[in-house]
Write a structure and sequence with these properties.
Layout (H helix, E strand, L loop, with lengths): L5 H11 L1 H9 L2 E9 L5 H11 L5 H14 L16 H6 L6 E6 L3 E7 L7 H8 L4 E7 L6 H12 L4 E7 L8 H15 L6 E6 L23 H7 L5 H4 L3 E3 L2 E6 L2 E7 L4 E2 L4 E5 L3 E10 L2 E2 L3 E2 L3 E6 L10 E4 L5 E12 L11 E4 L4 E13 L6 E2 L9 E14 L6 H4 E5 L6 E10 L15 H8 L4 E6 L6 H14 L4 E5 H4 L11 H20 L3 E5 L5 H10 L5 E7 L2 H7 L4 H7 L20 E4 L5 H17 L2
């Protein structure tokens, strides 16, 4: 008697035992996986084939697929399964995937959500997004091209993001005559590279997504292969849900207080379990209490587990805010404002250590900076390489410093509390994804030492208000000349000052820095910190630096208290600067002798709203200095 197909069995069960069918569907295991690899390895075709073979395409979708395959397909009128996934018009026109497409399908053994991610190097950030929530990575390799740089990059990133099971799907075997030797060669090449990764399992499957070989069923064209089909691997791979076994953690997203009689803390539990009567600790304050109740939309619960969104009430009135974390008291996470992390850089503009960025964790956004790039990872060899910055798609190990304390677990133990994204403060663009390795414990032992003689006492003694006069402008704009004249005038008035000049500082404090963008950022960061200390000493500080980037000038402003930073834009047309050219720098820049020269091959970002704007093309340096004195006299110079 012929075996009934899954579809027939399913239809009969629905007709005869609908409750049993629903119970069976509800309790099927669930797997998230990602497809990745290089451009045109066949990822979208593979997913289209899986959807087609699992009978999850409606008749109207099939009709549309047939029509689209004839119009824009790449298979000569035959079904082009990639069109089921490449939904964006731009993708269809270019023939590549540029966004992350999520699709659901199911078999009689398991339910799946698959993320089809871009293969193009430019969209590696989209691939990282898809990998962040996946359990398994299906890494496609075109049998004709073998292991490519993008194959290695995607393999390294998915492993870095915590995926421990990989299926290396060697696709398009029909285009190499189903050669066993090609298959073995690719296994060897990939195995040599992957030996240094931390995959728990790697399964190699030779296949043809277009023809259906070794996707759902075995292939008659590759009788030399006796391993599992792709679907067999996906249906049987064991993926442990670590979040359920980890200690209880719940980042607080909202303090829920609808009236005077109720105060709860809402959020999604990212790991562990919790029940009324359990003792918890709120971090970073380290205050403790006992869970009074667990409130949900469906009423109070006796227990809550990972991935549930709940509101927790406590027996005690303790101060908890959004950004805090409720945790198991005996196995608490760490708190720090400095840590080491791996970062995947996702932006065309390079990472600049020392530049302030927004660091967004699960439930908190703070300002932070990369204080040190320890090394970059060579994707091809996995060797560590020295570098001062990260470019698009590069991965590096960095030290970061934040302006506030965060609560974290190492990423390898708890991805939810160990991950973060980095956002550009000016453009609000996400520029990097990070995985925390460990806290820099030394930072927890560094505290501000209380002193009795403070800034107000020092400034009162000097009969002046401390301030930074930050002169910015192009080279040869007259910054140093005007700043020097202003200091002379302040000195004659009996004021206590100090002038930090760009050239002078590079003879000592910043002698180790060059003129590439990363060094320019660090140059200004150091000057900003010195200026802050001098303001604390009660001084009027004058600085004369090109300081070409808005972000760094804002960084220094943010270091100071309100009204302690005055940005003075020495606005001189570049033609006049070039005519002056006292050091001959413009001439050398034009001849190519000097690289990274501001105004030529390195940008200068003009202040949008300078506190004092000096149009020095129309006035002398002496007049400019008098204008500065007049602008600050009443507020800062009166005793």
């Amino acid at each position: 008697m012929p075996k009934k197909s899954y579809e027939v069995q399913q239809s009969e069960q629905i007709a005869n035992d609908i409750e049993g069918y629903l119970h069976e569907q509800e309790h099927k295991s669930f797997l998230r996986f990602i497809t990745c690899g290089s451009v045109d390895d066949g990822k979208s075709t593979l997913i289209g084939r899986l959807l087609y073979d699992s009978k999850l395409i409606f008749e109207d979708q099939l009709d549309a697929l047939e029509n689209d395959s004839k119009k824009v397909g790449t298979q000569g009128g035959d079904l082009d399964f990639a069109l089921l996934v490449d939904g964006l018009a731009a993708e269809r026109e270019q023939g590549i995937t540029i966004d992350v497409a999520y699709r659901f399908f199911a078999t009689d053994k398991r339910k799946f959500i698959v993320a089809d991610t871009p293969g193009h190097e430019q969209y590696t950030r989209n691939m990282a997004t898809g990998a962040s929530s996946a359990d398994v990575a299906v890494i496609l390799i075109d049998a004709r091209r073998g292991v490519l740089t993008q194959t290695r990059r995607h393999s390294y990133i998915v492993n870095l993001l915590g995926i421990r099971h990989a299926v290396v799907a060697i696709n398009k075997m029909d285009l190499v005559d189903y050669s066993e030797q090609v298959f073995e060669d690719i296994i060897r090449d990939y195995g040599e590279f992957a030996a240094n990764l931390n995959f728990e399992s790697i399964t190699f499957v030779p296949m043809s997504a277009l023809k259906g070989d070794n996707i759902m069923d075995g292939s008659a064209n590759m009788d030399w292969y006796d391993g599992p089909t792709l679907m067999t691997v996906l249906e049987t791979v064991e993926v442990a849900k670590q979040s359920a076994q980890n200690p209880f953690r719940m980042p607080v997203q909202w303090v829920n207080r609808p009236d005077l009689d109720f105060r709860g803390f809402s959020g999604t539990i990212v790991s562990g379990t919790i029940k009324p009567g359990d003792e918890v600790i709120a971090l970073p304050s380290a205050r403790t209490s006992v869970v009074k109740s667990i409130v949900t939309y469906d009423g109070d619960q006796d227990q809550a587990v990972a991935d549930q969104a709940v509101t927790i009430t406590l027996e005690d009135e303790i101060d908890i805010s959004r950004g805090d974390v409720l945790a198991e008291i005996d196995q608490r996470p760490e708190t720090t404002d400095q840590f080491q992390a791996y970062m995947i850089w996702m932006h065309d503009q390079a990472l600049l250590p020392g530049r302030p960025y927004l660091i967004k964790t699960t439930n908190k956004t703070v300002t932070g900076e990369v204080t040190e790039l320890k090394y970059k990872v060579n994707i091809n060899s996995l060797e560590h390489e020295a570098g001062k910055t990260l470019e698009l798609n590069e991965v590096g190990l960095c030290n970061l410093s934040l302006d506030e304390t965060i609560v974290f677990d190492p990423y390898r133990e708890n991805p939810a509390l160990g991950s973060f994204i980095m956002i550009d403060k000016i453009t609000n663009v996400t520029v990097a994804a990070g995985m925390i390795d460990f806290g820099l414990r030394r930072a927890t032992n560094v505290h501000w030492q209380a002193v009795d003689v403070h800034k107000k006492a020092r400034s009162t003694q000097k009969r002046q208000k401390p301030v930074v006069l930050w002169f910015t402008g192009l080279s040869a704009s007259g910054k140093s000349t005007i700043a020097n004249l202003v200091e002379k005038k302040l000195h004659s008035l009996g004021k206590h000052t100090y002038l930090l000049d760009g050239d002078n500082v590079r003879h000592g404090l910043n002698r180790d820095l060059g003129f590439v963008e990363a060094d320019r950022v660090e140059n200004i960061r150091r000057v900003g910190e010195v200026s802050k200390l001098m303001v604390d000493a009660g001084l009027i500080v004058l600085t004369a630096f090109i300081s070409p980037f808005c972000a760094e000038r804002r960084m220094v402003r943010d270091m100071m208290e309100e009204n302690e930073f005055i940005e003075v834009f020495v606005d001189t047309p570049i033609e006049i600067c070039e005519q002056r050219d006292p050091k001959g720098l413009y001439k050398k820049a034009r001849s190519g002798e000097i690289k990274n020269f501001t105004g030529f091959d390195s940008p200068y970002e003009k202040p949008e709203r300078a506190d004092i704007h000096l149009h020095t093309g129309d006035i002398t340096a002496e007049e400019a200095a008098d204008e500065v004195i007049a602008r600050i006299e009443e507020k800062y110079l009166s005793s």
